[in-house]
């Protein structure tokens, strides 16, 4: 028997939306089917990612954050959700600084009003760590070209791992591309053994880049925090920007700084609580009480 219904918060970071469940007092099992049901916008609650708050294993951390994509699989990083959890924990602890444990390591967040800054750590740039299926010495532009029928060719992406794999295609005009066609082909391209999050990026000026994202395991999203970080890093490596850039996503702007002193990526942006609700108890029926 599962016991009571499970409460959740609905949150988002620039429209990239999450169902957030606090499982610190009650162990819950999230099978692929359960995650897919919760994420389903018709039957369930609807979200891009399911976020579970758990007791941290690392004694330095205030909270452990587990992340599931809408399609059901667990992943290691989610920039927008990290800001949301940074806000929740800052409120709970009564201090702005929070340490969040993830599968990608410890992330430090600082809340300042309606903005949260997260130190997203040092990007991984070696081909084995992206990971790629083949050796590439320079991951600012790997050999990859794809052209869905009747669509312009996308080629030579920059690749960056910020706790999860990202490929960034630099384009002259975002509106000339239909990412809903190219996204699934590129996400599943054999060059990415763990699949990849796919971004199209258009450089507007030396401090402004417009981006659209097809997320691995979630599809088109209003925003993706880790994609914004990966774009910031790739843009510096390409010489398009110096170190700080506004990354404009369909849902709004994230400020990204790739700090010269220690090569850490700093991501700043908002969080939003949309509401709260309860998942039906029978969803967890087979769990032990
Ligand atoms: N929305 C997230 C990224 C979520 C995980 C991603 N789809 C993956 O599979 O790596 C973000 O804000 O970073």
TrEMBL record:
**In which broad location class does this protein mainly occur, judging by the first location in its UniProt entry?**
cytoplasm
Q: Where is this site: Could be important to modulate the pK values of the two catalytic cysteine residues?
A: 166, 215
Give the active-site positions: 78 (proton donor), 224 (proton acceptor)
Which InterPro entries does the UniProt record give?
DAP_epimerase_DapF
Provide the catalytic activity annotation. (2S,6S)-2,6-diaminopimelate = meso-2,6-diaminopimelate
Give the metabolic or biological pathway: Amino-acid biosynthesis; L-lysine biosynthesis via DAP pathway; DL-2,6-diaminopimelate from LL-2,6-diaminopimelate: step 1/1
Leading EC class: isomerase
Task: List locations, semicolon-separated.
Answer: Cytoplasm
Q: Return the EC number.
A: 5.1.1.7
Q: Where does substrate bind?
A: 16, 49, 69, 79-80, 164, 197, 215-216, 225-226
Q: Self-association or partners: how does it assemble?
A: Homodimer.
Q: What role does it play? A: Catalyzes the stereoinversion of LL-2,6-diaminopimelate (L,L-DAP) to meso-diaminopimelate (meso-DAP), a precursor of L-lysine and an essential component of the bacterial peptidoglycan.
Q: Which family does it belong to?
A: Belongs to the diaminopimelate epimerase family.
Matching PANTHER family:
DIAMINOPIMELATE EPIMERASE (PTHR31689:SF0), DIAMINOPIMELATE EPIMERASE, CHLOROPLASTIC (PTHR31689)
* Listed HAMAP family: DAP_epimerase (MF_00197)
Name it.
Diaminopimelate epimerase
GN (gene name): dapF
């Amino acid at each position: 028997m599962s016991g009571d219904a499970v409460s959740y918060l609905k949150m988002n970071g620039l429209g990239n939306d999450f169902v957030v469940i606090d499982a610190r007092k009650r162990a819950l099992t999230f099978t692929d089917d359960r995650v897919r049901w919760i994420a389903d916008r018709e039957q369930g609650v609807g979200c891009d990612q399911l976020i579970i708050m758990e007791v941290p294993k690392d004694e330095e951390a205030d909270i452990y954050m587990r992340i599931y994509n809408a399609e059901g699989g667990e992943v290691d990083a989610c920039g927008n959700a990290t800001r949301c959890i940074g806000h929740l924990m800052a409120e709970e602890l009564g201090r702005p600084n929070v340490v969040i444990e993830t599968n990608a390591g410890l992330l430090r967040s600082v809340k300042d009003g309606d903005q949260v800054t997260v130190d997203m750590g040092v990007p991984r740039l070696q081909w084995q760590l992206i990971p790629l299926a083949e050796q590439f010495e320079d991951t600012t532009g790997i050999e990859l070209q794809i052209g869905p029928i009747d669509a312009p060719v996308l080629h030579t992406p920059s690749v960056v791992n910020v706790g999860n794999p990202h490929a960034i295609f630099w384009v002259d005009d975002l509106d000339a591309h239909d990412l809903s066609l190219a996204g699934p082909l590129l996400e599943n391209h054999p060059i990415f053994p763990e699949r990849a999050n796919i971004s199209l990026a258009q450089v507007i000026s030396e401090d402004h880049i417009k981006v659209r994202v097809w997320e691995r395991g979630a599809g088109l999203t209003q925003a993706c925090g880790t994609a914004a970080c990966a774009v910031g890093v790739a843009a510096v490596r390409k010489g398009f920007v110096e170190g700080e850039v506004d990354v404009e996503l369909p849902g709004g702007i994230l400020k990204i700084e790739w700090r010269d002193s220690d090569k850490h990526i700093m991501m700043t942006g908002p969080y939003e609580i949309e509401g709260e609700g309860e998942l039906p108890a029978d969803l967890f029926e087979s769990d032990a009480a």
